[in-house]
Amino acid sequence: MASLFEQLEKKILIIDGAMGTMIQAANLTADDFGGEAYEGCNEYLTITAPHVISHIHEAYFAAGADIVETNTFGATRIVLDEYDLGHLALELNIEAAKLARRAAEKYTTTDWPRFVAGSMGPTTKTLSVTGGATFTELVAAYEEQARGLLIGGVDLLLLETCQDTLNVKAAFLGITEAFQAVGKRVPLMISGTIEPMGTTLAGQTIESFFISIQHMKPFAVGLNCATGPEFMTDHLRSLASLANTAVSCYPNAGLPDEEGHYHETPDILAKKIRQFAEKGWLNIVGGCCGTTPQHIRAIAEAVRDIPPRVIPKQFAMHAVSGIDALIYDETMRPLFVGERTNVIGSRKFKRLIAEGKYEEAAEIARAQVKNGAHVIDICLADPDRDEKEDMEQFIQQVVKKVKVPLVIDSTDEDVIACALSYSQGKAIINSINLEDGEERFEKIVPLLHQYGAAVVVGTIDEQGMAIEAKRKLDIALRSYDLLVNKYGVSPHDIIFDPLVFPIGTGDEQYIGAAKETIEGIRLIKQHLPNCLTMLGISNVSFGLPPVGREVLNSVFLYHCTQAGLDYAIVNTEKLERFASIPEEEVRLAEALLFHTNDE
Ligand code: HCS
Questions:
Q1: ipTM greater than cut 0.95
Q2: Fewer Cβ close by (within 10 Å): the C or N end of the chain?
Q3: Residue nearest atom 8 of ligand 1, based on CA coordinates
C-alpha cells in the first residue's frame, strides 16, 4: 500500500470538508448530544452519536477525499472542561480516531489508500491574545489529545486553524511528549489561519508564521478557515515560494453572512482552488467551514489532472521572526541589534527593571526599533536580581511593543526557555561557547529544536577567548562541526560572535585586537559562508571618554561591515553615520583602532 508520502508525490491530495457544518446540518436533538448541557459540544457526539460522525467521514471518502479529519477539533481538556467533560478528553480522542480509522479502512483499496488526520484545533485560549491558560497548561492539554489520537490510530496529526504561534509551540511540545509516551511518531501537518486583515489573530504574516514553526519539521504547512479562497491568494503565493514542505489550502466556502451561513457553491470554490493549483502552489486541498461533500467532490474533480507542487528539498537561508519576519539577504548588511534593553549596558534600563517598571523599560525597545533596530537584544542578567522572574515579566511587555525578532541574551537555560515560551517568533539565543567544553551546547541546543531559534556562538573555548583571527576561525570551525553534525543545527541558524575587545584599557594583550576581530569576521565568512556573524560594536571603545566614542564605533563598524559582518549590536539611537564623519576624524579613529600611531 502506498504511503502518505508516496501519494503526495503522485497527486494533489484531497482533505475533507467541514465537520462542524455537517454536524449543524444534521439537525441533531439535545438527546443526540447526551442532554441539553452538552448541546454544541460536537466532540461529545463521538460517543453519544457515533453513527452521525461515521456517516460524515464516509460521505467525505465517497466524495473523493484521501484524508479525513477526526472529530476532535475541540477535544482538548481545556475546551471540554467548558462542558464539564474534561475528564473524557483522552477517551474522546481515542474513540474519534477509531471511528475515522474504520471509515478509512472501509474505503481503502489496493490502489487508493485513505488516511486519517488527527484534528487539533487552537482551543478557546489564545496565549498571545486572550490568555486564560498558561503555556504549560496548553502543553499538557495537547499532550493528552495527541496521545489519544495516536492510540486511536491516526496516520498524521493536523494542527489546524492556528491563530497564535505560541499555541502551536505549546502543541508541538505536547505532541513530542505524546510521541515518547506512546512510542510512535506520525507526520505533522500545520495549517494557519490568516484573518481578512492579512495576519493571524496574534498578528503574524504567513512568512513569520512559517519561519516560527519550521523547527517542528512539518511535512505540510498551509492555510484554512477565516476566509474563502480569494483572500488567501497573496498568502498562498508567499508560502508556496518560501516553504520546503508540502503546501495545503482548505478555505471556507467564502465569508459568512450575518447569520453565519456560507454561500460559495461547490463549483465556484473548486474553480478558485483549481486556479491556485494551476499556478503550482498546492499539494493538499479541501474545504473548511461551510463546505460539504459536494464541495469536496467538485474540488477533487477540478484538480484531478493538475500535478502537485514540487516540494523544494531545502530551506537555504537565514530567517528569524518576531511578529514580523526577517528573511536575510546579503544586501541588508549590517542588520542592527538594538542594545539598550540590557541591564549590563544601560543604567536607565537597569533602574527601570529594578523598580519593576517593565512596561516603561519595554519602551526602550520600541525606541530602538523606531531608530532602525532590526532585532532587539534583551539581557536581564543583573546578579542582584532574579533573572528568570525579570525575564518573565519583561518579555510579556516587549512582545506587545515590538514586532521585530528578539535576541535572548542569557547563559541560563531556564531563563532562555522562559523567554521562548512567551515569544511567538523564532528568536536568537545569545550565546553559547566551548568555554566548558560542550556543556553549554548540551544544555542550550535542545531549546533550538523545541522552540525554534537561531544561536550566537562566541569564539571562546577551554583556553579562553580567542584574540587572534586564526584562533577565532579554528573555534568557529570546531563549533560548526559539532552543531551541524552532532547536534543537528542548520548552518543558517548559526551566528558567530568573533568577540570585540576594548582598545582603550591599556591592556597589552588587546593591542591589535580590533584588526584581529575584523580579520576573524573575514575568515569565518570565507570558510563558513552559510553562517552569519554578530558583534557588539561599542565594546571596542569601552572605557574611553564619551566624546568621540560614537565616531570610533562607527569607523569600527564600517570596517567590520566591509569584512562581511551581518549583525551589529549597537545603540541605534546614537549611531553616527559613517558617511557623515569628516575624513580627518576617520583617520584619527583608524589610527586608534589599529594602533598605527604606536609604530
Ligand atoms: N476541522 C474543523 C475546522 C474548523 S475551523 C471543522 O469543523 O471542519
A1: yes
A2: C
A3: 18
